[in-house]
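Morning F.,

Quick status update on the modeling queue. The single chain you submitted on Monday has been processed. Sequence for confirmation:
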Amino acid sequence: MVTLSSYSLVELNTKELEENINSGYLDNFSEDRLIQFWINQNEILGSEGEPSLENLLDYVSKETKKNPEYLEKSRLAACEILKKCDAETVINIYNSIEFINNGFLNKIDLEKLLSENFENKKTSEKKINDYSIDIVNTANNSPFDYGKRKKFRDIFLDTPIGITLIYKDKPNAVVSFIPKDKNTFMIHQLQGVMPKIYDKEGKFTGEYKWHSRGLFGLDWQKLLVELCITVAEEVGYNKMGIKSGYNNHWLNEKGGIKIKAALKKYDGVAERLGFVQDKPSFFNFFSYIFEKGDWYKKIN
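Structure tokens below.
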């Protein structure tokens, strides 16, 4: 049996991986080492769709007492979105997903948030009871995918988890996020939504179900950013980030967001809310001139 003595990417075939799972050898691994072992084996064997990886995920889930769906989404988010395939990053993302899905909404005073973010206070008093918020997770074990909610599956998330602002039982806006590192919670998506109409065969008809009427007169970007700050503080982060439009995942994709819209949606909002754009060191001249940093703000 081939066994591991370090965190290095040791290449095991399917048989050797199964032997390590079944022998009890992995029982001696600490949580972070076990998760790193699982990450590494996915990097080596994942493209081959090895069934043994499912067995390894089940084993890791059982040993660490962590939800296997959240674990897999956290691994994919770390590796595919952040390009950081390490146990610490995966655990940070996992802890956030688990926390938000277990009673986080009970900590939110939505009425207070709404009243503070309406332009017209009289309007807020009439409309405030028509709003709610909901947690939305990606429908599949994917770092970004369509979100699953009781009635809607056509809100695309740029991270495994987000929060929707709902008006009269209809999603009007969404924010999605994940931790960037042990100190920083990062918003990747902040947008209004108009779910699509599908025919009986499941094809998009070219029409939308409604307009986001609940956003009129409401500083909904500020409201959703404040929600995310609450999440970050509750989970223990001291810095909030908003991804720059220049670094948006969909910027150069076919049918994706245009640079002018991206800068208005993200950089404009971040600057308005007191975030400061990060810049490379001036001593790295070319990076300083050409690279566009994300936006950050210290929180409690």
